[in-house]
Structure formats: structure tokens, C-alpha cells
Amino acid sequence: TQLLEQSPQFLSIQEGENLTVYCNSSSVFSSLQWYRQEPGEGPVLLVTVVTGGEVKKLKRLTFQFGDARKDSSLHITAAQPGDTGLYLCAGEGTTDSWGKFQFGAGTQVVVTP
Amino acid sequence: DAGVIQSPRHEVTEMGQEVTLRCKPISGHDYLFWYRQTMMRGLELLIYFNNNVPIDDSGMPEDRFSAKMPNASFSTLKIQPSEPRDSAVYFCASTRPGDTQYFGPGTRLTVL
What we know:
The complex is a heterodimer. By secondary structure, chain A is mostly beta strands. Chain A is 0% helix and 52% strand. In chain A, the strands form two sheets. In chain A, strands 2, 4, 5, 9, 10 and 11 form a six-stranded mixed β-sheet that branches. Chain A has a five-stranded antiparallel β-sheet with strand order 1-3-8-7-6, with no helix packed on it. By secondary structure, chain B is mainly beta. Chain B is built from no helices and eleven strands. Chain B has strands spanning 5-7, 10-13, 19-24, 31-38, 42-50, 53-56, 65-71, 74-79, 88-95, 102-103, 107-111. In chain B, a hairpin with a 6-residue loop joins strand 9 (88-95) and strand 10 (102-103). Chain A binds chain B through residues 2, 33, 40-45, 48, 88, 90, 97-106, and chain B through 4, 31, 33, 35, 41-45, 48, 56, 91, 93, 95, 97, 100-101, 103-106.
């Protein structure tokens, strides 16, 4: 059973458009991470958010952690073909589970020129 | 640093055969994780080690799966006997406190 629900499962947009992907859970997390995975490779960390309500920006990517630390969103402005990939969110539990992350199923993003 | 190294990158075997996947973590990282990724179930944590000691193996599917970490620079994940439903991409990742997890390139396993 996936504790983290990601939506949408698949997103296809044209270069220059904006997109938002969501990560929701009924569980509270001590931290939440976003990764991007390209075909034939392992996931690569984009950001870690820790504080409820936190917003982090990485160039054209904006990450938000919900106030209750149960959900998160990733917004990409003016998407480029290089943004294509599988976006995964991962939550770290609040009990004795340092480093143990539960992953969502991912959102496959395709940005066409 | 070369990053997390996994071998083989691809493995094709027949049902019933033993499969051994290998991982070399990043030097200095004292946590090592084994994950399995499938379309149906996404990325699942199988087991993780701290200082070569297994901490949580609750994600290991069944007794056919076993993992060892004989020293700080090497870990194996073994499946015996393998079954077609074990077909997946298996990732190894390593980290240390305060740092991020670094994933290896994965081993794509196909069990016929």
C-alpha cells in the first residue's frame, strides 16, 4: 500500500507551459523529498523540505510543504524538454526511522519542444 | 568519487535460479539501502543497513530474499530461488547523517 499518493500519474505538456504535480498522504512526515529519475538511472534528489508551510525555489522549480506536513507540491514554470522525467516524492517518518523513506509511485512528465 | 556502483546492470535468468546483486556504496557513507522498483508498486524499500548491521528488513518480500553487508564497502542482495514476479529494477543507495541518499544506476532483473 502506497502511503504517498502522487497525482497526476502522467503529464504531457509543451515547452514553455507550467505544470504542478502533487504528493498527498494521511501521514505526517518529518521531512519530504522530491527526486527526478531519468530512464536507466537512479533517482536524483532535487530538494528536501522540513518545515510545515516551507517553500523552496530552485530556478524554475518551486516546492511547497503543506502546513500539516502531510502533503507537498512541485511547480515548474516555463517547462523545458530537459525537465522530462519521473518525479518522485518521498516522506520520512516521524518515529525511529531516520533515513527510511516511503516513496510515491511517481508522476511521469513529458515536455515536448 | 565514482558514486554508488551496482553490478550487474542487467541480469536475465530462468525461474528457480539464484540471483546475486552487488553494491559498492560511496566511501564514508554508513547507511546503505536496497530498493526495488516496478511499474505496479513503484519504488519500495527492501532493507537498510547502518554500519554494516541490518536495521530494518520489513520490506523484504519473503524468505527467498536475503541481504548481507560483510564490510563497509560491499553489500549483496540474493534471491534464491528466483521467480518471474521478482522481475524489477533493483537500486542500491547510500548516505550518511545530514546528507542526501545517492542512488546507484540500478540492476534490471528479468526472470523468465
